[in-house]
TrEMBL record:
Protein name (Swiss-Prot/TrEMBL): Holliday junction branch migration complex subunit RuvA
Keywords of this entry: ATP-binding, Cytoplasm, DNA damage, DNA recombination, DNA repair, DNA-binding, Helicase, Hydrolase, Nucleotide-binding
Region (Domain III): 146-195
Superkingdom field: Bacteria
Domain I, as annotated region: 1-64
Length: 195
């Protein structure tokens, strides 16, 4: 297994880089997150790698941050998520945003990524929630209470007879304007004033 490469950055593109190490050029697939962290071509870099071996190919993926590689490995362990979808996920959102969404059970954020449906998004959260907290630690991930409070408030408002879509708009506005995570009661009281 190739753990990392240290060499000269020969070619830099949004989807791949070429790193030369002792006369050998390595073609690495990268995410937009890694692309943003890369310096100019022809500079010496150190990049973490993941080697994917299949029957018909060997593909090398590159990551500027070790945490991004660990998240990539967790994502490809989920059934239905291949290396290309995992790379798309890391290109669409920051690794931190993905970890936060998984930890807080935010299906809509995961589902907003191209190629991810509702079932796959739920599977990602179900399979990885505990692993993400274990690998990255709760201190690194912001697990918001507001997500569960928001859901509880919405179901209460639905029970009171309000349409979910209009209630969701009002609740989202309340959540954005709040300086700290509001309680379920506070959300409901403010929403009732605005509905």
């Amino acid at each position: 297994m190739i753990h990392h490469l240290r060499g000269q950055l020969i070619e830099k593109n949004p989807t791949h880089v070429v790193v030369e190490c002792n006369g050998v050029g390595y073609f690495l697939h990268i995410s937009l997150h890694t692309f943003a962290l890369l310096r100019n071509a022809s500079e010496a870099i150190s990049i973490f790698t993941h080697l994917q071996v299949k029957e018909d190919s060997q593909t090398l993926f590159g990551f500027m941050e070790k945490s991004e590689r660990e998240l990539f490995r967790l994502l490809i362990s989920v059934s239905g998520i291949g290396a290309s979808i995992a790379r798309t996920m890391l290109s669409s959102l920051d690794p931190k945003q993905i970890m936060d969404a998984i930890a807080s059970g935010d299906v809509s954020t995961i589902q907003s990524i191209k190629g991810i449906g509702a079932k796959t998004a739920q599977r990602v959260i179900l399979d990885l929630k505990d692993k993400v907290l274990k690998v990255f630690g709760e201190g690194e991930i912001f697990v918001s209470q507001s997500n569960t409070n928001k859901e509880e408030a919405l179901s209460a408002l639905e029970t009171l007879g309000f349409a979910r879509k209009s209630a969701e708009k009002v609740v989202d506005r309340i959540m954005k304007e709040a300086t700290e995570d509001p309680t379920v009661e506070t959300i409901i009281k403010l929403a009732l004033k605005n509905l």
